[in-house]
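Re-run with default settings, no changes from the original entry. Doing this only to confirm the output is reproducible before filing.
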Amino acid sequence: MLFKQFQHEEGSCLSYLLGCTKTGVAVVTEPQLDIEPYLRYLNDHRLKLTHIFETHSQADHLSGAKKLAEATGAQVYFHESAKANFPIQRVKDGDELMVGNIKLKVLHTPGHTHDSISLAVTDMTRSAEPWFLLTGDTLFVGDVGRPDLHGSAESLYDSVYNKLMQFPDSVEIFPTHYAGSVCGKALSPKPSSTMGFERRFNVALQFKSKQEFVQFVMSDLPVQPPRFEKVREFNLGFLAEPPIEKTFDKDSLEITVEQLKQRQDNGEKPFLLDVRSPGEYQVANLGGTLIPLQQLPNRMAELDPNQEIIVYCHTGNRSRRAVEFLYENGFRKVRNLIGGIEAWSVRIDPRVPRY
């Protein structure tokens, strides 16, 4: 089996391509709107795309499922509860599909959304046991999906604790997001893990009761993705054009670490806003004021909308979200530090620890 993970920094998204070399067929999950990387990989490996899976109705990025289906003739698969305005194949819990020698078993895992699924993947040439799980936005490395975008914390508990955690420790997990995404609040930058590691170290998997879990996942939620309702409508085919209109030029809301250093050397003192977690702040910081991204909606009053604010995080993904959120809430002098504290450490001051 060929296995390819695609990382997409915009939105900290992950998509996947699985191919059966013996039969020459393949499946793609969670495709982005730019479908060229998938088409190139399929062509380079002489694979025909037959299946496209969306693990749920996406709201944080623009999906390429419909576009990819039109380009390849592959069918798009959603959970049976999803409502789309283009042809889809509906699957339900327990369904098994064969893509060459690859078996995909559908697990209905609602919580992040009501139509969320995970896929248990088995390479039948190796074993009859599942090799790994594609967990969508249900289970991340170090976290679980947020339940406030038309989901349910109670359902999320049942999906994670009573379904996914029943798999053995050896099973690998591959989610749809990594650190920087707003679909969770404590995602790891590592894009894969195992059930055993998550069972031991994922904070969201340590609770003894559903009530404790629900209280945990509903607290300190990140800012909601901008225009998430419209994005979801586009992804499901109800909007013809992607809702990407902005009232600003993204490049005008960014600053490089070199530019910031030069301005500081010239005596300027822009307000620095750190949107990482308190734990990250203790490891390394640039002296900025700490307001974690998930707390930003409730703490905007602590910021001056007329002051220049430069926002940073670890690599620039969370701060980009914060800048867009602040700009849309009246902050016109806000900028994202490109590359974040990692770029500062590498290119400006190596005394700032890397992590």
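Residues 317-328 form the longest helix (12 residues). The chain has a mean pLDDT of 92.
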